[in-house]
Amino acid sequence: TFFGVIIMMMTMMVVTTISYDDLAKWDSYALTMPVSRKEVVTGKYAVMLLLDALGVAMALAVGLIGVVILKNSSWEEMMAVLVIIAAIGLIAGSTLLPLIYHFGTEKARIIIILVAMVPTGLIVLVSGMMAEEQLSQISGLFSNISLPLVLLTLIIFTLLYLYASYRISLRIYDKKEF
Q1: Whose CA, among 7, 25, 131, 165, lies 20 to 30 Å from 41?
Q2: Type and span of the H or E element at 97
Q3: What is the per-residue DSSP string for 50-80?
Q4: What is the distance between the alpha carbons of residues 156 and 150, in angstroms, rounded to a whole number?
């Protein structure tokens, strides 16, 4: 849980930078300089990637204490959790950035909360309706899947999603008037 909090907070700080940009009318000012719209969007995605990496580094430092000193978990388990949470952070940020460019910061936050609530609610509803026996059968289906394969698939999906989000954000920002 601590890994998730660190990484998600760091990754979502890019939203805060956009909020402050909006308050200061930064985009209007930046576009009067020799900065292209593509560079503005690229900068936000670069900040998101750097903040995600910083969150992973901070979580790794805390995780090393757990693995080495407290012997709470294994190194492989910790690294798998870090990769998964970093990917989730990048996917969430990649979902939010085009929404922010299209709807603005405040409306995009509301939309992302609603989007997150729907699958969460469905999972809670379905798991509440299913018996323990059915849930254990479902988890048994996934026990034969190789963890490195899952992580590699997740990394590839995240990179493709990030690229698609970037292209969509570029298109939205190109059409935006300030």
Answers
A1: 7
A2: helix 75-103
A3: HHHHHHHHHHHHHHHIIIIIS--S-HHHHHH
A4: 10
d(CA 171, CA 148): 35
Q: pLDDT tens digits for the chain (178 residues)?
A: 777 888 888 888 988 899 899 889 998 898 899 999 999 999 999 999 999 999 999 988 888 887 778 776 778 888 888 899 999 999 989 999 999 999 988 888 788 788 778 777 877 777 777 666 665 666 666 667 788 888 999 999 999 999 999 999 999 999 988 7
At 31, give phi and psi (nearest 5°): -75, -10
Burial bucket for residue 31 (CB in 10 Å: 0-12, 13-18, 19+): middle
As given in the structure block, the two tokens for residue 81 are 């959790």
- 84/116 Cα distance (integer angstroms): 17
Q: Which residue in this structure is represented by tokens 């609603």?
A: 114
In angstroms, the CA 100 to CA 21 distance is: 12
Q: In 93-172, where do the E strands start and end?
A: none
